[in-house]
Amino acid sequence: MEKKVAKRLQGLLSKIDSNRTYDISTGVSTIKTLASAKFDETVELALKLGVDPRHADQMIRGAVVLPHGTGKKVRVAVFAKGLKADEARNAGADVVGDDDLAEDIKNGNLNFDMVIATPDMMALVGKVGRILGPKGLMPNPKTGTVTMDIAKAVTNAKSGQVNFRVDKKGNIHAPIGKVSFTEDKIKENMLELVRMVNRLKPASAKGKYIRGGILSLTMSPSIKLDSQELMDVK
Protein backbone atom coordinates (compact mmCIF):
# COMPACT_ATOMS: atom_id res chain seq x y z
CA MET A 1 0.00 0.00 0.00
CA GLU A 2 2.80 2.44 0.93
CA LYS A 3 4.53 1.76 -2.40
CA LYS A 4 1.29 2.57 -4.25
CA VAL A 5 0.94 5.84 -2.34
CA ALA A 6 4.57 6.75 -2.98
CA LYS A 7 4.22 5.97 -6.68
CA ARG A 8 1.03 8.04 -6.93
CA LEU A 9 2.68 10.97 -5.13
CA GLN A 10 5.75 10.81 -7.35
CA GLY A 11 3.52 10.87 -10.39
CA LEU A 12 1.76 14.00 -9.13
CA LEU A 13 5.01 15.73 -8.19
CA SER A 14 6.29 15.20 -11.72
CA LYS A 15 3.43 17.41 -12.99
CA ILE A 16 4.46 20.48 -11.00
CA ASP A 17 7.53 22.64 -10.52
CA SER A 18 8.16 22.95 -6.77
CA ASN A 19 10.46 25.92 -7.36
CA ARG A 20 7.91 27.85 -9.36
CA THR A 21 5.41 30.45 -8.19
CA TYR A 22 2.25 30.09 -10.26
CA ASP A 23 -0.06 32.89 -11.32
CA ILE A 24 -3.71 32.35 -10.36
CA SER A 25 -4.96 31.12 -13.75
CA THR A 26 -2.06 28.71 -14.30
CA GLY A 27 -2.30 27.54 -10.70
CA VAL A 28 -5.96 26.63 -11.13
CA SER A 29 -5.42 24.82 -14.42
CA THR A 30 -2.47 22.94 -12.93
CA ILE A 31 -4.27 21.88 -9.77
CA LYS A 32 -7.00 20.24 -11.86
CA THR A 33 -4.38 17.96 -13.43
CA LEU A 34 -3.49 16.62 -9.97
CA ALA A 35 -6.81 14.86 -9.33
CA SER A 36 -5.98 11.26 -8.42
CA ALA A 37 -8.52 10.07 -5.84
CA LYS A 38 -11.59 7.97 -6.48
CA PHE A 39 -13.77 10.75 -5.04
CA ASP A 40 -14.34 14.37 -6.02
CA GLU A 41 -11.50 16.06 -4.18
CA THR A 42 -11.89 19.45 -2.51
CA VAL A 43 -9.82 22.35 -3.82
CA GLU A 44 -8.28 24.17 -0.85
CA LEU A 45 -6.66 27.58 -0.58
CA ALA A 46 -4.24 28.50 2.20
CA LEU A 47 -3.01 32.05 2.76
CA LYS A 48 -0.14 33.18 4.96
CA LEU A 49 -0.98 36.64 6.31
CA GLY A 50 1.28 39.30 7.77
CA VAL A 51 -0.79 39.71 10.91
CA ASP A 52 -0.30 38.96 14.60
CA PRO A 53 -3.45 37.16 15.81
CA ARG A 54 -2.45 37.87 19.43
CA HIS A 55 -3.76 41.40 18.83
CA ALA A 56 -7.56 41.55 18.75
CA ASP A 57 -7.60 44.01 15.85
CA GLN A 58 -5.52 41.60 13.74
CA MET A 59 -7.66 38.51 14.35
CA ILE A 60 -8.94 38.15 10.79
CA ARG A 61 -12.32 36.46 10.72
CA GLY A 62 -15.10 36.57 8.19
CA ALA A 63 -17.40 34.80 5.79
CA VAL A 64 -17.98 34.83 2.07
CA VAL A 65 -20.62 33.23 -0.15
CA LEU A 66 -18.75 31.58 -3.00
CA PRO A 67 -20.46 32.33 -6.34
CA HIS A 68 -20.40 28.66 -7.32
CA GLY A 69 -20.68 27.11 -3.87
CA THR A 70 -18.33 24.58 -2.31
CA GLY A 71 -19.76 21.50 -3.99
CA LYS A 72 -20.62 20.13 -0.57
CA LYS A 73 -24.06 19.63 0.91
CA VAL A 74 -24.10 21.76 4.05
CA ARG A 75 -26.20 20.70 7.04
CA VAL A 76 -27.39 23.68 9.07
CA ALA A 77 -28.54 23.81 12.69
CA VAL A 78 -30.42 26.86 13.97
CA PHE A 79 -31.04 28.04 17.51
CA ALA A 80 -34.33 29.95 17.37
CA LYS A 81 -37.84 30.11 18.81
CA GLY A 82 -41.31 30.93 17.55
CA LEU A 83 -41.59 32.69 14.22
CA LYS A 84 -37.81 32.70 13.74
CA ALA A 85 -37.78 28.92 14.12
CA ASP A 86 -40.48 28.66 11.45
CA GLU A 87 -38.44 31.01 9.25
CA ALA A 88 -35.42 28.74 9.64
CA ARG A 89 -37.38 25.62 8.71
CA ASN A 90 -38.92 27.30 5.69
CA ALA A 91 -35.47 28.37 4.51
CA GLY A 92 -34.26 24.77 4.59
CA ALA A 93 -32.49 24.41 7.96
CA ASP A 94 -31.81 20.77 8.81
CA VAL A 95 -32.14 21.09 12.60
CA VAL A 96 -34.04 23.80 14.48
CA GLY A 97 -34.46 24.09 18.24
CA ASP A 98 -33.52 25.75 21.50
CA ASP A 99 -33.13 23.84 24.79
CA ASP A 100 -33.67 20.54 22.99
CA LEU A 101 -30.95 21.36 20.45
CA ALA A 102 -28.53 22.32 23.23
CA GLU A 103 -29.28 19.03 24.97
CA ASP A 104 -28.63 17.08 21.76
CA ILE A 105 -25.27 18.81 21.40
CA LYS A 106 -24.37 17.97 25.02
CA ASN A 107 -25.15 14.34 24.19
CA GLY A 108 -22.72 14.42 21.28
CA ASN A 109 -25.23 14.74 18.44
CA LEU A 110 -23.51 17.13 16.06
CA ASN A 111 -25.02 16.11 12.75
CA PHE A 112 -24.46 19.50 11.13
CA ASP A 113 -21.75 21.61 9.51
CA MET A 114 -22.82 25.11 10.54
CA VAL A 115 -24.69 26.65 13.45
CA ILE A 116 -26.78 29.81 13.21
CA ALA A 117 -28.53 31.59 16.08
CA THR A 118 -30.72 34.58 16.77
CA PRO A 119 -29.12 37.05 19.21
CA ASP A 120 -31.54 36.16 22.02
CA MET A 121 -30.38 32.54 21.84
CA MET A 122 -26.69 33.26 22.47
CA ALA A 123 -26.90 32.79 26.24
CA LEU A 124 -28.16 29.27 25.57
CA VAL A 125 -25.61 28.68 22.82
CA GLY A 126 -22.88 29.78 25.24
CA LYS A 127 -23.69 26.79 27.45
CA VAL A 128 -22.50 24.46 24.69
CA GLY A 129 -19.71 26.78 23.53
CA ARG A 130 -17.02 24.44 24.85
CA ILE A 131 -18.32 21.79 22.47
CA LEU A 132 -19.00 23.99 19.44
CA GLY A 133 -15.94 26.26 19.73
CA PRO A 134 -13.16 23.69 19.18
CA LYS A 135 -15.05 22.36 16.15
CA GLY A 136 -15.33 25.82 14.58
CA LEU A 137 -19.12 25.76 14.91
CA MET A 138 -19.69 28.62 17.34
CA PRO A 139 -22.02 31.27 15.83
CA ASN A 140 -20.46 34.71 15.45
CA PRO A 141 -21.82 38.07 14.23
CA LYS A 142 -18.70 38.57 12.07
CA THR A 143 -19.62 35.56 9.97
CA GLY A 144 -23.31 36.41 9.79
CA THR A 145 -24.26 33.39 11.89
CA VAL A 146 -25.70 35.46 14.75
CA THR A 147 -28.53 37.37 13.13
CA MET A 148 -32.23 38.12 13.10
CA ASP A 149 -32.28 37.57 9.34
CA ILE A 150 -32.43 33.81 9.74
CA ALA A 151 -33.76 33.08 6.27
CA LYS A 152 -30.86 34.86 4.59
CA ALA A 153 -28.30 33.20 6.87
CA VAL A 154 -29.66 29.72 6.17
CA THR A 155 -29.85 30.41 2.43
CA ASN A 156 -26.24 31.66 2.40
CA ALA A 157 -25.05 28.62 4.32
CA LYS A 158 -26.83 26.27 1.96
CA SER A 159 -25.61 28.05 -1.16
CA GLY A 160 -21.90 27.97 -0.37
CA GLN A 161 -20.92 30.26 2.49
CA VAL A 162 -17.39 29.68 3.75
CA ASN A 163 -16.42 30.89 7.22
CA PHE A 164 -12.75 31.52 7.81
CA ARG A 165 -10.47 32.73 10.58
CA VAL A 166 -6.74 33.19 10.94
CA ASP A 167 -4.95 30.62 13.10
CA LYS A 168 -2.24 31.28 15.69
CA LYS A 169 0.45 31.34 13.00
CA GLY A 170 -1.37 33.81 10.76
CA ASN A 171 -2.72 31.27 8.26
CA ILE A 172 -6.18 30.97 6.71
CA HIS A 173 -7.38 27.68 5.21
CA ALA A 174 -10.62 27.41 3.23
CA PRO A 175 -12.30 25.16 0.65
CA ILE A 176 -13.04 26.87 -2.67
CA GLY A 177 -14.86 24.12 -4.56
CA LYS A 178 -14.38 20.66 -6.02
CA VAL A 179 -11.83 19.52 -8.59
CA SER A 180 -14.74 18.60 -10.88
CA PHE A 181 -15.61 22.31 -11.15
CA THR A 182 -14.53 24.10 -14.30
CA GLU A 183 -11.38 26.21 -14.12
CA ASP A 184 -13.48 29.39 -14.35
CA LYS A 185 -15.65 28.38 -11.39
CA ILE A 186 -12.67 27.50 -9.19
CA LYS A 187 -10.95 30.74 -10.13
CA GLU A 188 -14.04 32.88 -9.49
CA ASN A 189 -14.55 31.23 -6.10
CA MET A 190 -10.92 31.82 -5.20
CA LEU A 191 -11.03 35.47 -6.23
CA GLU A 192 -14.17 36.05 -4.16
CA LEU A 193 -12.49 34.64 -1.06
CA VAL A 194 -9.22 36.52 -1.60
CA ARG A 195 -11.16 39.73 -2.26
CA MET A 196 -12.87 39.39 1.12
CA VAL A 197 -9.59 38.65 2.92
CA ASN A 198 -8.03 41.74 1.35
CA ARG A 199 -11.04 43.79 2.39
CA LEU A 200 -10.46 42.75 6.01
CA LYS A 201 -6.85 43.93 6.11
CA PRO A 202 -6.35 45.65 9.49
CA ALA A 203 -4.88 49.16 9.51
CA SER A 204 -2.39 48.04 12.16
CA ALA A 205 -0.91 45.24 10.02
CA LYS A 206 2.67 46.09 9.04
CA GLY A 207 4.64 44.95 6.01
CA LYS A 208 3.28 42.69 3.31
CA TYR A 209 -0.27 41.54 4.04
CA ILE A 210 -0.51 38.34 1.96
CA ARG A 211 2.90 36.74 2.28
CA GLY A 212 2.13 33.47 0.58
CA GLY A 213 -0.58 31.41 -1.05
CA ILE A 214 -0.91 27.66 -1.50
CA LEU A 215 -3.38 25.74 -3.66
CA SER A 216 -3.96 22.02 -3.16
CA LEU A 217 -6.43 19.15 -3.41
CA THR A 218 -7.47 16.76 -0.65
CA MET A 219 -4.94 14.16 -1.84
CA SER A 220 -2.40 16.23 -3.78
CA PRO A 221 0.87 18.06 -3.20
CA SER A 222 0.51 21.84 -3.07
CA ILE A 223 1.55 24.53 -5.51
CA LYS A 224 2.70 28.04 -4.63
CA LEU A 225 0.77 31.08 -5.86
CA ASP A 226 2.02 34.58 -6.61
CA SER A 227 1.40 36.48 -3.36
CA GLN A 228 1.57 39.89 -5.03
CA GLU A 229 -1.13 38.92 -7.52
CA LEU A 230 -3.27 37.76 -4.61
CA MET A 231 -2.77 41.09 -2.85
CA ASP A 232 -3.83 42.93 -5.99
CA VAL A 233 -7.24 41.21 -6.04
CA LYS A 234 -9.68 43.95 -5.07
Spatial separation of the terminal alpha carbons: 45 Å
| Count of discrete alpha- or pi-helical segments spanning 4 or more residues | 9
Average pLDDT for all residues: 93
- Rg result: 19 Å
- Main sheet properties: 5 strands, mixed
Number of strands: 10
Element order: H for helix, E for strand: HEHEEEHEHEHHHEEHEEH
Instruction: State the helicity in percent bands.
Output: 25-40%
Beta-strand residue fraction:
15-25%
Major beta sheet, strand line-up: 1-10-9-2-8
Q: Pairing-aware structural class of the strands and helices?
A: alpha/beta
Which term fits the overall shape?
A: globular
GO cellular component, one term: cytosolic large ribosomal subunit
GO molecular function, one term: tRNA binding
Function: Protein L1 is also a translational repressor protein, it controls the translation of the L11 operon by binding to its mRNA. Binds directly to 23S rRNA. The L1 stalk is quite mobile in the ribosome, and is involved in E site tRNA release.
Family: Belongs to the universal ribosomal protein uL1 family.
Characterize the structure shown.
It is a single chain. The protein has 234 residues and is of the alpha/beta class. It is built from nine helices and ten strands. It has a five-stranded mixed beta sheet with strand order 1-10-9-2-8. Strands 5-4-6 form a three-stranded parallel beta sheet, with helices on both faces. The chain starts with a helix and ends with a helix.
